């Protein structure tokens, strides 16, 4: 009975072993990062064959190599393939080779870079790069940097940063001075509180000393962007460039990498096998014990394999969820801005009503506090809001590239399942409309404060149009999208509808009309033409609102039926412009107030070419020495129609819908400042 059960058990275990993932390969399935080139090859091409040859032979043809750097080239001309692979300097030889083999497989998989002629991949212990270029060896590879960070509070960030730079600078020199086999250095430093700091830097050994130092310095230059924050430190940072690594942690992380054994080569088949010899009882017991041990090992490996597979599957799902909204290049550029949902829930007390700052068209906004004490504003998208993936993506991609004191700062975002969340700097005084349109709050808005706000908004728009690397038309400039900090410094917000245009482009045609009732320029509403002058028009409306303290869509003056623009121009023309001014501002500078009314009227001219540019507006606001032209009648200057009625007529004419972030209703148009409404033809 024993003799029949043992072979059956061994056969069962053999089948199990063949059906589960390789335990060593599973250790390296946490493929962390990849970057693909632009040019591609076709399946079954000579390039594909050469690539397979190169990747398969990286470690197998260099069995005597023990320094963790492998390189090989195959093919000629356009089908030439060169590959470089580098392991961290403290990784044992067998572990290194296994990491490279697993990374090569992952890099060219369908989820990563399946048919690119150039690609870079990074795992926990190694990196791999291949290209069809002729000058790969001995050159710093141009690959988008990648980083992973973890932060904890620190009482003395300046002291920490000084220790960090001192340690990493010394390691840079040591690594770059290494020989042609290994350019690698590790070290330990200290900072306040008796805590330790551990660092590691490494270059591919084919680089010269100067190129190695340059690569590492490029990584160091990322520190102020991704790794150093006020009142906090990053307890661990791993920065990866194409030809070098930079890593530090406040706990030891190098010198303890496990040495995984290489799998044994397959045994040759024995064609002259002799009949099995019957074993003794003692021998059979030993076989059973061995089989049981093997079963336990197999089950352990099976569990590890399943866990690793789930982790890999989760990462792939996450990558796919990103890729559904962003391109690969956008993902790489934005990874450092992503917050985890758990972090946001902790910061906002699980989106508690006590933390709620308000409700906009996009969804609720909450105040939050991060673990390092930084205050944040969290805007949570409602799927029923009418705004979706396009606006969410647009706001992230635009604000991530902008930095100006009069623009709200985007700190990051969160994508998790159906959750789409934007994280901004916290601005203490909410939005401008909560002050100038509120009969009580606007009592405190003296002219000096309003003039400061007008100037700040102008400079923010000027930066969007001319000052940044991009040329951006906001398309939804209004009082509700201007936030005020504790010093009443204005910050333009809500870039979900913003549009990028070429630097030398004067105007473009929009596929549909979007924006807010009352602020949309006539050429945009009637002809779908959008330009920087569209923002100038909205700015002019905003200036007249700030001066009058009244909203464009609900303006009233005694029993007068005119809209705000008509009323402002008529009184300007009759030299009674003081009728427009908010009574609260009677103590303000008459010269500045009247000049702002004049500028506002110039900005709302019917023809875009009659409106000034924002650079001209900035000069007009900055000095009184510039003589202003007399304004022509503005858009919508009629005696018989109110502004909402005219907008309804536009909608009928253009067969388009105008998005409004107002609420309530006037003639079917939502105007009370809460919800988003689609405006349809009558």
Automatic annotation (TrEMBL):
Can you give the residue ranges of the Protein kinase domain?
351-621
Membrane spanning residue stretches: 288-312
Pfam family name, one: PK_Tyr_Ser-Thr
Localization, UniProt: Membrane
Task: Please provide the record's keywords in A-Z order.
Answer: ATP-binding, Glycoprotein, Kinase, Membrane, Nucleotide-binding, Receptor, Repeat, Serine/threonine-protein kinase, Signal, Transferase, Transmembrane, Transmembrane helix
Region labeled Disordered — which residues? 260-279
Q: Which residues form the signal peptide?
A: 1-26
Q: Which membrane topology term applies here?
A: Single-pass membrane protein
Check the record and name the SMART domains matching this protein: S_TKc
Task: List each copy of the Gnk2-homologous domain by range.
Answer: 29-135, 142-253
What is the name listed in the Swiss-Prot or TrEMBL entry for this protein?
Cysteine-rich receptor-like protein kinase 44
Q: What is the scientific name of the source organism?
A: Spinacia oleracea (Spinach)
Q: What gene does this protein come from? A: LOC110776351
């Amino acid at each position: 009975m024993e003799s029949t059960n043992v072979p059956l058990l061994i056969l069962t275990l053999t089948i199990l072993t063949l059906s589960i993932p390789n335990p060593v390969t599973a250790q390296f399935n946490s493929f962390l990062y990849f970057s693909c080139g632009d040019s591609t090859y076709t399946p079954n091409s000579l390039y594909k064959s050469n690539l397979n040859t190169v990747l398969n032979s990286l470690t197998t043809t260099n069995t005597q190599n023990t320094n963790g750097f492998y390189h090989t080239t195959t093919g000629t001309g356009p089908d030439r393939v060169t590959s470089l692979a580098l392991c961290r300097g403290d990784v044992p030889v067998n572990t290194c080779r296994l990491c490279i083999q697993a990374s090569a497989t992952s890099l060219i998989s369908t989820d990563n870079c399946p048919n690119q002629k150039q690609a870079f991949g990074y795992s926990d212990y190694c990196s791999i790069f291949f290209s069809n270029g002729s000058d790969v060896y001995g050159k710093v590879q141009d690959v988008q940097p990648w980083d992973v960070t973890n932060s904890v509070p620190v009482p003395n960030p300046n002291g920490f940063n000084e220790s960090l730079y001192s340690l990493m600078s010394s390691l840079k020199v040591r690594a770059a001075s290494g020989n042609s086999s290994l350019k690698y250095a590790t070290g330990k430093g200290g900072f306040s509180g008796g805590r330790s700091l551990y660092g590691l830097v490494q270059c591919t050994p084919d680089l010269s000393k100067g190129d190695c130092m340059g690569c590492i310095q490029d990584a160091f230059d990322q520190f102020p962007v991704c790794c150093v924050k006020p009142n906090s430190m990053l307890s661990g940072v791993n920065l990866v460039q194409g030809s070098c690594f930079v890593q530090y942690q406040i706990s030891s992380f190098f010198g303890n990498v496990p040495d995984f054994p290489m799998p044994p080569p397959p045994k040759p088949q024995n064609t002259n096998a002799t009949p099995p010899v019957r074993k003794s009882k003692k021998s059979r017991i030993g076989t059973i014990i061995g089989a049981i041990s093997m079963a336990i090992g197999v089950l352990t490996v099976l569990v590890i394999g399943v866990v690793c597979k789930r982790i890999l599957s989760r990462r792939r799902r996450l990558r796919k969820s990103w890729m559904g909204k962003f391109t690969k290049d956008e993902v790489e550029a934005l990874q450092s801005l992503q917050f985890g949902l758990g972090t946001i829930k902790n910061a906002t007390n699980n989106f508690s009503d006590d933390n709620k700052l308000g409700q906009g068209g996009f969804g609720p906004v909450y105040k939050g506090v991060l673990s390092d004490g930084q205050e944040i504003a969290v805007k949570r998208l409602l799927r029923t809001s009418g705004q979706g993936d396009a606006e969410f993506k647009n706001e992230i991609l635009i604000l991530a590239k902008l930095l100006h004191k009069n623009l709200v700062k985007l700190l990051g975002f969160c994508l998790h399942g159906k959750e789409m969340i934007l994280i901004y700097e916290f601005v203490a005084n909410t939005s401008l409309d909560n002050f100038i349109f509120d009969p009580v709050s606007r009592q405190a808005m003296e002219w000096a404060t309003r003039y400061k706000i007008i100037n700040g908004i102008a400079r923010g728009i000027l930066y969007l149009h001319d000052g940044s690397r991009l040329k951006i038309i906001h398309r939804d400039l209004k009082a509700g999208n201007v936030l005020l900090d504790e010093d009443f410094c204005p910050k333009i917000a809500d870039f979900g509808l913003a549009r990028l245009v070429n630097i030398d482009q004067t105007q473009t045609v929009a596929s549909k009309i979007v924006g807010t009732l009352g602020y949309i320029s006539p050429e945009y509403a009637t002809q779908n033409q959008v330009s920087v002058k569209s923002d100038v028009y909205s700015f002019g409306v905003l200036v007249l609102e700030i001066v009058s303290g009244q909203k464009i869509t609900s303006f009233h003056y005694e029993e007068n039926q005119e809209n705000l623009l008509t009323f402002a121009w008529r009184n300007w023309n009759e030299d009674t412009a003081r009728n427009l001014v908010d009574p609260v501002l009677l103590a303000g500078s008459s010269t500045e107030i009247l000049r702002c009314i004049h500028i506002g009227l110039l900005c709302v001219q019917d023809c875009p070419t009659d409106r000034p540019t924002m650079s001209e507006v900035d000069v007009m606001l900055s000095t009184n020495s510039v003589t202003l032209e007399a304004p022509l009648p503005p858009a919508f200057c009629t005696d018989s129609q109110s502004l909402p009625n005219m907008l309804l007529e536009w909608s009928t004419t253009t067969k388009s819908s105008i998005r409004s972030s107002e609420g309530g209703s006037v003639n079917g148009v939502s105007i009370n400042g809460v919800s988003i409404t689609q405006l349809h033809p009558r």
